[in-house]
Design goal:
Order of helices and strands: HHHHHHHHHHHHHH
Largest sheet: none
Strand content: under 5%
Structural class: mainly alpha
Shape: flat
Radius of gyration: 28 Å
Mean pLDDT: 78
Number of helices: 14
Distance between the termini: 42 Å
Length: about 325
């Protein structure tokens, strides 16, 4: 039978998954981070979605900009240009404020999660017998866990899930914005097909670029680390056996070996940087190629000029959202 103190210590022990333990312990901040990730893309899309309505109001039309503004302003105010512009300014200010708040919330959540894990690791260590740390390399492992691994686990737990949901929701919001710009004058099935094709192409190209860049850069990184180890060993050998190298007139040979290692290390660094930039280059190329295609599509469907003013920023923001998949690769 276990004593009450032991039962209390066992109850305080994290679940096998430290991620779930952190999320339960900091559920409030985690929920706030998720809410911001969901609200921010919607607020950012409002000015773009309102372009056709604002153009109509500026030209003297009675059309309301977007349904969302009529929900907040009422039908009468949403049919006047002044209140609509004021509402869009407020939406932009709120989007900026949420971005600032999200930075603070994310930083605080990660810092608190790291502190929680470090505190728990120390508590577990203090309950171990005195000889436990002398077994194997546990002192080094514990220091590494307290300083480095805790931060990695905390960042993964508090950043990956909100970022994933934020990317997903932003993709949905901007795909819907693009759909609304096309669906107003043409059939919904045509608009849905166009949006589906755009999202599919962006998703395939971005995922393929991220996968290829990650695979190639990982190999290049492994080669770089191997050459760095070789250079470190060569440096230690030079320092430890300097007198022997000088007596045996082997300094030139040692310098030649160092030059060869440094050349291979430099080439590996270039390969790492080159493959790491593949996803960014693919993203920029997609946008440059997509805009002329979108303009041709706009002319082919006979859409209004205001629709093009919505379609282009929707494409840019949709690509930006889907390209966020690349930031999840390290996680």
């Amino acid at each position: 039978f276990r004593s009450g103190a032991v039962r209390a210590a066992a109850a305080a022990t994290p679940a096998p998954s430290p991620v779930r333990w952190i999320l339960r312990r900091r559920a409030g901040l985690f929920g706030a981070s998720l809410a911001i990730m969901l609200i921010a893309p919607y607020l950012g899309s409002l000015p773009v979605r309102a372009i056709p309505g604002v153009v109509g109001l500026a030209g003297g039309s009675e059309a309301r900009p977007v349904g969302e503004l009529s929900w907040f302003l009422g039908d009468a105010a949403a049919a006047r240009l002044g209140p609509v512009l004021a509402a869009l300014i407020v939406a932009g200010a709120l989007s900026f404020a949420l971005a600032m708040i999200n930075t603070r919330v994310s930083a605080r959540l990660t810092a608190l999660a790291s502190a929680d894990l470090r505190q728990h690791l120390l508590a577990l260590t203090l309950r171990r017998p005195p000889g436990w740390l002398r077994e194997g390399n546990r002192v080094i492992d514990l220091k590494n866990a307290l300083l480095a691994q805790v931060r990695v686990v905390a960042s993964y737990a508090t950043g990956t899930l909100p970022s994933t949901l934020g990317i997903l929701f932003a993709t949905v919001i901007w795909a819907q914005t693009l759909y609304l710009a096309i669906a107003a004058p043409v059939k919904g099935a045509v608009a849905a097909g166009v949006v589906g094709a755009v999202v599919g192409v962006l998703l395939v190209v971005n995922v393929a670029a991220v996968w290829l860049a990650g695979k190639k850069s990982q190999r290049s990184q492994a080669a770089l680390m191997k050459e760095q180890g070789a250079f470190l060993a060569l440096g230690n050998e030079t320092v430890d056996h300097l007198a022997s190298l000088q007596l045996n007139v082997a300094t030139e040979a040692q310098a030649a070996r160092a030059r060869a290692v440094l050349e291979r290390m430099t080439a590996a660094e270039v390969r790492v940087a080159s493959w790491s930039g593949l996803a960014t280059a693919a993203s920029g190329g997609l946008v440059l190629l997509g805009i002329p295609i979108l303009v041709a599509l706009w002319r082919g469907l006979g859409l209004a000029g205001a629709s093009l003013a919505v379609m282009i920023p929707s494409l840019l923001m949709l690509q930006r959202a889907i390209a966020g998949v690349g930031s999840l690769w390290p996680s």
